[in-house]
Design goal:
Chain lengths: ~375, ~375
């Protein structure tokens, strides 16, 4: 019962052969071996390319997976929210960088509480002089200067300075202001990661990298130290070596992959060379209709912002449709036998980051066995 | 720090005048007064109509709100998942009914553990003879018969028996089988709740009610006791009194309402007579673009399966668009001043149930003050 409270109802299955097929559903599964191969493959790429890794924890929200990435050579972890950063620092992960501006009074107060704790490197982006001034003021009051990276929007326009002049002005100000230390420039092209054709992705990414290279060169020419240039994602991780602009890569989804990337592999588009490592195990709970069965995996366990889940195991050739908060519709191919009540159906996750955020636990599987359960430590943390 | 661990970073604001505008964002807000008025209005309707209430906890996943509903006269609470039911029974909520079939071995084992605990009434739906047999076998082993309701799909086809004959056969079997006690029939028309025009909603709901009335009458004529006929939702809560089929209503969304219902009110369609009580407070975190600002409310804090959030306060006339996992795009009307960095923007939630499921806490507000924080107890519980 204690294990059920801390690790959920499947804790009793850990280490039992064949337990993967017996899990209480819906359950988020991570294939440990595929995960480790993905982490090793990205580490090998970075080593060969001579670039550092600071993978993005927004994908997995897990201190355990962050630790695996650090053990494979990553110099730190990116976080999208302050709450993720609090979890990672608490777990002893070094080099935590917060990739979204922290601007409100409550967020700056929490950031200073985190900064006051022992940590090996903590940095945050800035994209506006008012925010820089507020952070510097708070850091002066705390008596501990804060590392900042200036954020450049890179055409996405979500956060970041809009142009070269704004980046240069803010970088100079970060250097001149008492309380902040300029550590570098961040530029993440979130809008490019899912462009399906590699040639278009490449040409657009390289155009952005040209702008970024110009910014960095001008700052360095002006005597401003820019040790870090941070950016890229799983869709563009291998484009920069040609341009040699980034000092580190913020790749996230490569650890898991998802339906988008799987589809790219299936239809011959150029998908990144990583394996699908993340699944959701669901079960058939109603079989009274013709042509389909109802599962217990609905929109409270799969993200709905992207494609639908892909059926991976348990019902070959079937298609998934959302069927409400707690149910999925498993549409069977013509003539296929209907899986029986209780049958387990494993699905590849649609957009992996928000799917993970719907689950409390990773059920770590290897082959047919559950081998561990890891909490999704930073789930829902803002 | 203890409060931050248990009630999140806003615990220090409880009871402070003006604190609503100072909250750490993104924060799920529930307007306590509107919530209480909604609960009272539905209770008054049920009293007048001579029907009982067993509101659906899938909407709020909160033992506190369930308790308010019970105090206002509800005879129990519906739950979509076994995990929700575990939370509600633990909190001492009586009359917990599970509205989805529980068919897998792990679920039946957990159901029996719950059933073995002291509780005032626990029931579950069945829609298949194999599941009925499995439940009866488990209940016999536990030495404590289980209350069941036979589920009738009512045209939705998600769960439930497909036709009258199947309902009648399963009901007879539930009576005849040692280990189960037939308590009644459930029929929830999830497919009808959001039909926008009341006349169409009404005619389709009444057609389903005719079928349901026929089923119940035939069972009663055959000497089978059917004390409970459970169904309806916020979109059809007031249609049944004309038909007098249901003994109790499973209404859920009326406590909060959401963008769909707000839109119905705005464009003159016939929306249920309840108030919007649920919001998400977000903050402006980047202002470097023309015509829009970026907020800290993205698809990890708003459900994406329905409409987009409506901007309720802080940026009059603005529209919201999703802008990634952690960000929203606040599109300003032409010529409108841009809200400053850090400005709070409150949004009406899109589909309320899955939005609540993305949050750990209700920030309970009254006027301009935070007055309490309630955990979303059953968030993510399967």
């Amino acid at each position: 019962m204690d294990d059920m409270l801390t690790l959920g109802p499947n804790a009793r299955f850990i280490g039992k052969p064949g337990s993967r097929a017996a899990l209480d559903t819906p359950a988020l599964l991570v294939d440990r071996d595929a995960l480790e191969r993905n982490i090793a493959a990205m580490a090998a790429h970075a080593h060969t390319a001579g670039v550092a890794l600071r993978p993005h924890a927004k994908t997995h929200k897990s201190a355990r997976i962050a630790q695996l990435q650090v053990e494979a050579g990553a110099l730190g972890i990116c976080c999208a929210t302050l709450g993720e950063a609090e979890v990672m620092v608490t777990a002893g992960i070094p080099g935590v960088h917060i990739t979204s501006p922290q601007v409100t009074e409550p967020k700056i107060a929490r950031l200073m509480m985190l900064h006051a704790r022992p940590h090996e490197g903590l940095s945050v982006v800035v994209d506006h002089p008012d925010n820089l001034a507020a952070l510097a003021r708070a850091a002066r009051q705390a008596g501990k200067p804060l590392d900042v990276l200036v954020d450049f929007s890179a055409g996405h326009g979500r956060t970041g300075c809009a142009d070269e002049a704004a980046v240069a002005a803010l970088a100079r100000e970060a250097v001149a202001t008492d309380g902040t230390i300029l550590r570098g420039i961040q530029s993440y092209s979130g809008n490019l990661q899912h462009i399906s054709m590699r040639d278009e992705r490449r040409s657009r990414a390289l155009a952005q990298l040209d702008r970024l290279r110009g910014i960095v060169a001008r700052l360095r020419d002006a005597g401003i130290d820019v040790p870090i240039v941070s950016g890229a994602g799983t869709g563009t991780f291998d484009l920069d070596p040609e341009a040699r602009v980034f000092t580190e890569l913020q790749v996230g989804s490569y650890v898991f992959m998802d339906v988008d990337y799987l589809r790219a592999l299936k239809d011959g588009r150029n998908a990144p060379p990583f394996e699908t490592a993340l699944f959701v195990a669901t079960a058939v709970v109603s079989v009274n209709a013709q042509g389909y069965a109802t599962t217990d995996g609905g929109l409270k366990c799969f993200a709905t912002d992207g494609p639908v889940p892909d059926v991976a195991r348990g019902a070959p050739g079937s298609r998934y449709e959302f069927f409400g908060d707690e149910h999925g519709k498993l549409i069977l191919p013509p003539g296929a036998p209907r899986p029986p009540l209780g049958a387990m159906i494993e699905c590849v996750t649609p957009h992996c980051d928000p799917t993970v955020n719907l689950h409390d636990f990773y059920h770590v599987v290897s082959g047919d066995a559950l081998v561990d359960i890891w909490p999704v430590d930073a789930r829902g943390k803002r």
